[in-house]
Design a protein that fits this description.
By secondary structure, this protein is mainly α. The protein has 2 domains: 239 residues, no CATH class; 98 residues, abc type-2 transporter like domain (abc type-2 transporter like fold, 3-Layer(aba) Sandwich), CATH 3.40.1710. It is built from 15 helices and 4 strands. α8 runs parallel beside α11 and α11 packs antiparallel against α14. The chain is elongated and about 95 Å long.
Length: 395
């Protein structure tokens, strides 16, 4: 009898803990379903999600091109030699439009009118000077108002002129071969298409922006409409409310990101996804959890949707600009780089996304980024939970 009684006493706390866990999970499931229904009932937010992961991805990838394509170029050929004609003939699509032949007095008018971005001036006796071994020069006029095209396009023109001169000299019988033959191999993006980079990075940026906006707006909306008071009289805990918002909004964002990568990035833009999409989505769960907790933290600080927007704009801009998606982290000052890698999960997520989607990296390569995101996310969640309890529950 005593042994049976002792066994019942040891099983009682275990049954209560099991019952508590089941009740916690049941409440979490019901609250998550409520959040999903709330998202479905907000057509403006749904339109924003669909637009951000479809039209916005496509337009940014195709419209914000950084490579030199279809550049307008003119040639002032005062030499009229085989070498000068071969230089003009080498300016071919898709990098350049067919070269326009100009007279020396037409250069200023053509560039001032914006008809030409580049004008190459080949002086008289250009070919003969090169054959005689004398110093020869050709002038390239650049319209630098188109700064991106001006920088990369001028480099392309220099390479074209240098390669044509080298080919002209090595084609002679008495010419000697160059001592070094430089061969460049470009990995992961052989044609250096900016759309391959901007499309994937835009997906990463939209995951950050919409996760913060959706979770923060969900909390602000309940506070403004007064429905958060209903939760106060229900047998739910602050952690259940927070986790339900994170799960519901994170699920919507991850599904939209998966469809965007499959249909828009890979389908419409024809960007190759080298790595595992499942690994990327699995790692994105850590990141979505972190930025969703940040959104709830900002939602508990702001008293209205307007204040939340003013608070979110600078934070999102800093997270995006200093994440490594726009400029490499290595180009930043070392203290700033270390600070961002300590307080922000975005640099770790950008590195993770680039490694998986561009280079096909596996879990053995990207696990440090996942650990960093999980650690930062745990801190964000605890801080947000404490602020949420104090603001909403008054605890």
């Amino acid at each position: 009898m005593d042994e049976a009684r002792a066994g019942e006493q040891t099983q009682a706390p275990r049954l209560e803990s099991d019952r508590g866990l089941k009740a916690y999970l049941a409440n979490l499931l019901q609250l998550t379903i409520k959040e999903l229904r709330s998202i479905r009932a907000d057509p403006v937010m749904l339109i924003l999600v669909v637009y951000s992961f479809s039209v916005a991805i496509y337009t940014v990838a195709n419209g914000a091109s950084t490579e030199a394509v279809n550049l307008s170029v003119g040639v002032v050929d005062e030499d009229r030699s085989n070498l000068s004609r071969s230089i003009a003939a080498s300016l071919t699509p898709p990098l350049f439009q067919p070269a326009v032949e100009l007279a020396p007095g037409e250069i200023d008018a053509a560039m001032n009118a914006g008809r030409l971005v580049f004008v190459i001036e080949i002086p008289p006796k250009f070919e003969s000077d090169i054959l005689a071994g004398r110093q020869a020069s050709a002038q390239v006029n650049v319209d630098a108002t188109a700064i991106t095209q001006a920088g990369s396009g001028a480099l392309y023109i220099q390479n074209v002129i240098a390669s044509e001169v080298a080919r002209f000299l090595t084609g002679r019988e008495d010419a000697t071969a160059a001592p070094v033959n430089l061969v460049t191999r470009v990995r992961f993006n052989p044609n250096l298409k900016s759309a391959w980079f901007t499309s994937v990075m835009q997906v990463v940026n939209n995951i950050t922006m919409l996760t913060v906006i959706l979770t923060g707006a969900a909390l602000i909306r309940e506070r403004e409409q007064g429905t958060v008071e209903h939760l106060l009289v229900m047998p739910v805990t602050p952690s259940e409310i927070m986790l339900s918002k994170i799960l519901a909004n994170g699920l919507v964002i991850l599904c939209a990101a998966a469809l965007s990568l499959s249909l828009v990035v890979r389908g419409l833009l024809h960007v190759p996804i080298e790595g595992s999409l499942a690994l990327f989505l699995g790692g994105s769960c850590f990141y979505v959890f972190t930025v969703a907790a940040l959104g709830i933290l900002m939602g508990s600080i702001a008293a209205s949707m307007g204040q939340f927007g003013l608070l979110a704009i600078p934070i999102l801009l800093i997270m995006q600009l200093l994440s490594g998606s726009s400029t490499p982290l290595e180009s930043m000052p070392a203290p700033l780089r270390h600070l961002m890698q300590t307080v922000s999960p975005t640099p770790h997520f950008v590195a993770f996304a680039q490694a998986v989607l561009y280079r096909g990296a596996g879990f053995s390569v990207v696990w440090p980024s996942l650990v960093a995101m999980a650690g930062i996310g745990a801190i964000y969640f605890l801080v947000a939970l404490r602020r949420f309890r104090r603001t909403i529950f008054g605890a």
